[in-house]
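Renewal narrative, Specific Aim 1. Our central claim is that a sequence can be written position by position from structural information alone. The example that follows is taken directly from our test logs and has not been curated for this report. It begins with the C-alpha cells describing the chain, in the order in which they were read.
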C-alpha cells in the first residue's frame, strides 16, 4: 500500500519538486551563494576587492594572456586564513605585465608590456630583491578568461566578488522588510481601529513615494557606503509585506482557532506569534522571493547612479556604469557580462517565487 503524505508541508514540497524551473533556480541560487561566500578563494585575483590594476593591459578581450612579473616589496604583513578567505589578501607585491625579460650579472632586465605594436619601457631590478635570487617563481603566464576592464583589472574576479553585494543585499533587505512589515501589519490587522488607521496612513504615504527616490533620500541621509545601501533598500520594501500581513490577519483573527485561543486566556502576543503568523506565512514567503529580486535591481540602479557600493568595491551595477560606453566601441561584453549576471540572478528569484506560489497555492 502506497503511503500518501497528508502534511501540508509535504504536499507543498512534493509540488515544488515537480516544478523544473523552481528546482533549477534553487540549485542555481545555492551555486551563486557559494560563489558569493568563497569569492576570494575562487577568483584568480584574490586581492581585496579584486582591485589589482594594470593600465597597460586595459580592455583586453576574453582569453587574453600575458606574462606577469611579481616584484616582492619586502614587507610581509601577517594575515589570518579566515581574513584571506572572506575579505581577500592585501596586495604587497608589485605586479608588472611584461613582454620579455633576461637575466645578466645578477640583474633582471625586463620590457614592460605595451599594446598596439608599441615597444615597452625597459627596466631592471636586482636579483637580491627575490628570495634566494630565484626569479622563476615570480614570473608566470596569466590568463584573463573574461578579459580586463578599462583599468586593467581581471573582469572574471570582479564579477565573482561583485556577486557578494548583489546576493547578500537581498538577504539583508528582505530581513529588514520582514521585521518591520510583519510587525506593522500584525499590529494593524489584529488591533484595528485607530491603530490600523495610523499605520495604514503611514503605509500609504510610504507607498506613494517612488521607491528609487526614497532609497536615494535614505542613502544620502545615512551616507554612501556598503551597509547604508543595504539598510536603505530594506527600509523601502516593508510596505508590501505589511499590507499582505494586515489583510491575512484581518481574515485569520475571525477563525475558530483564534477564538479558542482567546477563550483559553492566551495573550495577544502569543496568539499573533504562535497561532496566526505560522498560518499566514505562505504569501509572505512568495513576496519575499519577489523582494529579493527587487532589492538586487534597486542596488544595481543605485550603483549605476554612483550612490551605491563605492569604488574600489566590486558591484555589478557599477561595472555596467563604468563600461556602458564600450557597447558602441566594439567591446560590449564589458557591460553585457555583469548585466547578464544581474538578469540571471533576478530571473532565478522570480522563478522560485512563481514555483512557491504554485506549490503553496496562494490565492491572495
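The sequence written for that structure reads:
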Amino acid at each position: 500500500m502506497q503511503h500518501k503524505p497528508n502534511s501540508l508541508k509535504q504536499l507543498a514540497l512534493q509540488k515544488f519538486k515537480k516544478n523544473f524551473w523552481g528546482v533549477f533556480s534553487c540549485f542555481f541560487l545555492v551555486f551563486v551563494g557559494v560563489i558569493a561566500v568563497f569569492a576570494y578563494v575562487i577568483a584568480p585575483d584574490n586581492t581585496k576587492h579584486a582591485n589589482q590594476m594594470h593600465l597597460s593591459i586595459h580592455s583586453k578581450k576574453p582569453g587574453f594572456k600575458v606574462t606577469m612579473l611579481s616584484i616582492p616589496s619586502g614587507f610581509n604583513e601577517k594575515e589570518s586564513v579566515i581574513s584571506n578567505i572572506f575579505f581577500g589578501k592585501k596586495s604587497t607585491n608589485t605586479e608588472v605585465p611584461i613582454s620579455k625579460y633576461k637575466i645578466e650579472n645578477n640583474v633582471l632586465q625586463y620590457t614592460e608590456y605595451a599594446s598596439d605594436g608599441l615597444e615597452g619601457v625597459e627596466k631592471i631590478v636586482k636579483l637580491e630583491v627575490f628570495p634566494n635570487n630565484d626569479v622563476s617563481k615570480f614570473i608566470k603566464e596569466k590568463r584573463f578568461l573574461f578579459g580586463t576592464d578599462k583599468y586593467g583589472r581581471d573582469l572574471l574576479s570582479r564579477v565573482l566578488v561583485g556577486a557578494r553585494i548583489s546576493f547578500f543585499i537581498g538577504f539583508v533587505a528582505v530581513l529588514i522588510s520582514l521585521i518591520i512589515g510583519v510587525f506593522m501589519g500584525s499590529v494593524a490587522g489584529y488591533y484595528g481601529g485607530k491603530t490600523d488607521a495610523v499605520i495604514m496612513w503611514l503605509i500609504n504615504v510610504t507607498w506613494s513615494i517612488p521607491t528609487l527616490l526614497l532609497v536615494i533620500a535614505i542613502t544620502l541621509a545615512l551616507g554612501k557606503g556598503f551597509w547604508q545601501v543595504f539598510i536603505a533598500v530594506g527600509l523601502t520594501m516593508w510596505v508590501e509585506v505589511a499590507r499582505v500581513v494586515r489583510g491575512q490577519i484581518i481574515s485569520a483573527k475571525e477563525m475558530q482557532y483564534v477564538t479558542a485561543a482567546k477563550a483559553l486566556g492566551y495573550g495577544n502576543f502569543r496568539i499573533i506569534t504562535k497561532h496566526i503568523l505560522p498560518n499566514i506565512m505562505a504569501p509572505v514567503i512568495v513576496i519575499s522571493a519577489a523582494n529579493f529580486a527587487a532589492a538586487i535591481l534597486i542596488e544595481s540602479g543605485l550603483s549605476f547612479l554612483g550612490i551605491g557600493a563605492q569604488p574600489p568595491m566590486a558591484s555589478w551595477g557599477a561595472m555596467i556604469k563604468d563600461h556602458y560606453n564600450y557597447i558602441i566601441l566594439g567591446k560590449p561584453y564589458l557591460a553585457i557580462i555583469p548585466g547578464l549576471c544581474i538578469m540571471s540572478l533576478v530571473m532565478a528569484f522570480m522563478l522560485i517565487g512563481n514555483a512557491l506560489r504554485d506549490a503553496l497555492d496562494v490565492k491572495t
